[in-house]
Amino acid sequence: MDAEPYYGPDFGLLRGRDPEVARVLVDELDRLGDGVQLIASENFASPAVLAALGSTLTNKYAEGYPGRRYYPGCEVVDRAERLAVDRARRLFGAQHVNVQPYSGATANLAAYAALLQPGDTVLAMALPHGGHLTHGSRLNFSGRWFDVVSYGVRRDTELIDYDEVRELALRHQPKMIICGATSYPREIDFAAFRGIADEVGAWLLADVAHTAGLMAGGVLPSAVPYADVVTFTTHKGLRGPRGGGVMCTRELAPRIDRAVFPFVQGGPLMHVVAAKAVAFGEALRPSFGEYARRVAENARVLADALAAEGMRPVSGGTDSHLALMDLRETGVSGAVAERRCAAAGITLNRNMIPYDPEPSAVTSGIRVGTPCVTTQGMGAEQMKEVASLVARAVREPGAVTRVRRRVRELARAHQIYPREL
Ligand code: DSN
Fold this sequence. Notes:
alpha/beta, 4-stranded antiparallel beta sheet, 15 strands, globular, binds D-serine
């Protein structure tokens, strides 16, 4: 963010009316202000985004789409949605964008609903190799209602095995192929996926929830020219409000729109739609490309510095905003590392590595991401220090107080939301 101070919603009013909830908000600001956030799927929304989120647009029921609502009185909120759609289309060069999904998961549900029938076969990335819950977990609608076949990464390179994807597609004849991941650090070859989908007559869904910001910033290639449907989130690399979206071709627009509403969702959250418009507007500024470039550069420096500390970057490095680190050489599991880092004020998550011998509650890896720290203005120098603090937190639990103190100093020197409320 452009180091713009944020003075929050009216904390004085909230404290007066509801001190308990005000305390939660202030404590969360303190947590953020005292720690380093390395969760790859999080970011810090700008003051303008937060202002739109805290607006009276939350009051309005607006089922339907601009100009075609089921309630009267939508002519004002229609303008917010039109702005969001128009800006998102310009940002991504998409023919059609639906900005109403409440989250990336509901965006994916809408994509399935628009293109498939229950029982259809889907080919998607295996969860332990980087796929998402909605790419076929048995605990999720995708694994329960669809016949999901999974592809993974190669054991030797830890990169997507496009030959395996093609073989599985030819063997199983999926109705839809999904590309996109939550813990795959490398660029995805959308053209290769398009070729495979065409060969078997499958729809291609690109889930770019994690990489939409890097795509918009021109750091990673766009999935839009290749995929029939592209789903994304607005709160990760895009620095917007928590929410999702769906892009598609003009031909698929009516199917996607009907799937989002009324099939999957009810009334859109118009304050969130307005905040999405703000975020897309911010991402259209030239400075956003520079931000995206710094996110990826910071991830590279962080991965290299963690490697120098004896942690192995899965696939040898990263092209994106995240790195997946194999901790087996350290003798510390992902779960223990997560807990030790949390005690030191560093928030990151345990993550399975490909072919992980440990279960998901333990794991052999951690995932680190740089959207938050980059928004805070940290650069290469700070990434090297963060890597050394992570390594100390993981290896030397006895040093937790000293590590915590330095983490706090670093975070306070790069604070974006003020603490004195
Ligand atoms: N929970 C998100 C992530 O951390 O990757 C995906 O939904």
